[in-house]
Amino acid sequence: MSDTAAHRDDNPAERPDSVPLDCCGGLNNVDYSKMDLTLMEEILKHINFRDSSFHIAVIAIIFNPLFWNVVARWEHRTRRLSRLFGSPSLACYGLGFAIILLNVYRSHSMTVAMKVQARWEVMDRTDVFYAGAALMVLGTVLVVGSFLALGFTGTFLGDYFGILMDEKVTGFPFNIIENPMYWGSTANYLGLALIGASPVGLVLTATVAVVYKVAIRIEGPFTEQIYKERSHRRKLE
Questions:
Q1: Binding site for S-adenosyl-L-methionine, residues?
Q2: Would you say residue 215 lies in a domain?
Q3: Topological domains (Cytoplasmic): residue ranges (predicted)?
Q4: 38-45 and 199-236 helices cross at what angle (nearest 10)?
Q5: What range does the domain containing 225 cover?
Q6: What is the number of domains present in the chain?
Q7: Rounded distance between C-alpha atoms, residue 208 and residue 196, angstroms
Q8: Closest alpha carbon to 71 in 162, 160, 196
Q9: For 80-100, b where at least 16 C-beta lie within 10 A, e where not — what string?
Q10: Is residue 22 part of a domain?
Q11: Which residue, of 9, 29, 125, 217, has the greatest Cβ tally within 10 A?
C-alpha cells in the first residue's frame, strides 16, 4: 500500500532534493548518559516479550509491507499478475484486496496482544483515553482523505502495474503531511494503545512506525524511477 505516487511528477529537476540523514553524526552527538530511560523501563516492565500473541503481531506488522513490495515489484518486472487477471486494473484490485485483508489481520493481531497483556495504571486515565480517541479520529481522517485523493489504484501501488497518475496530488491531506496513509494508520494504532492503556500497544505502534519508515525509503526511489521512465518515453515519442 502506497501513497508515494501522490508526490511524483514527470520533471524530477523541479522537485527539491531530499535531505540525507546524518545518522553517524547525529548518534555521535547524543550524550546517552543524560537520557532519562525511566519511562521506557517502566513500559518494558509491563510487557511479556515471550507471549505468542506479541510475536504474531510483530510478524504481521513486518510481513505486510514486505509482501506488497515484493509482489508489486515482481508484477512491475514480469506483468504476470496483469496477464493472470486479464488486465492491470483487475490485477491491482486483486492485490489491493489482499493487502486490505492482511491489514485487517494485522489490526486484529495487535488488538489481541493488547487485550492479553497487562494494562498500565499510569495510562489508565481519562485524559489519556481522550487523547487516544482524538488520535484515532485524526488517523481516520488522514487515511480516508488519502484514499479519496488517490483512488483505489493510486493507493494500492497502481503505478507498479503501469497505472500512472497524470499529475501530482497536492490537495488534502497531502498539503499538510507526506505519506498520510501510513502516518494516519500509525496514529490509529497509537490511539488504540492509549485508549487501552496498553504498554505493548505502544511498542507495537513504534514497530509499525519503524516498518513504515523503511517501506517509504524503499518505495519512494522505486516509484520515482517509474515516473522518470515514463517521462523519458514521452520525450522520445
A1: 137-139, 219-220
A2: yes
A3: 106-132, 218-237
A4: 100
A5: 4-9+44-236
A6: 1
A7: 17
A8: 160
A9: ebbeebeebbebbbebbeebe
A10: no
A11: 9
Angle formed at CA 104 by CA 221 and CA 89, multiple of 5 degrees: 55
Annotate 164-230 with three-state secondary structure. CCCCCCCCCCCCCCCCHHHHHHHHHHHHHHHHCCCHHHHHHHHHHHHHHHHHHHHHHHHHHHHHHHH
- Per DSSP (E only), the strands in the chain are none
Which residues lie closer than 8 Å to 71 by C-beta, 6 or more apart? 81, 95
161 part of a folded domain: yes
In contact, 219 and 178? CB cutoff 8 Å: no
Helix, strand, coil % in the chain, rounded to nearest 5: 75, 0, 25
Nearest alpha-carbon partner for 190 in 127, 129, 136: 136
The one-digit pLDDT tens for each residue of the chain (237 residues) are: 655 544 444 444 443 343 344 444 444 454 544 445 577 777 778 788 999 999 999 999 999 999 999 999 999 999 999 999 999 999 999 999 999 999 999 999 999 999 999 999 889 999 999 999 999 999 999 999 999 999 999 999 999 999 988 777 788 999 999 999 999 999 999 999 999 999 999 999 999 999 999 999 998 888 888 888 777 777 776
* pTM score, whole prediction: 0.80
Task: Establish if 86 belongs to a structural domain.
Answer: yes
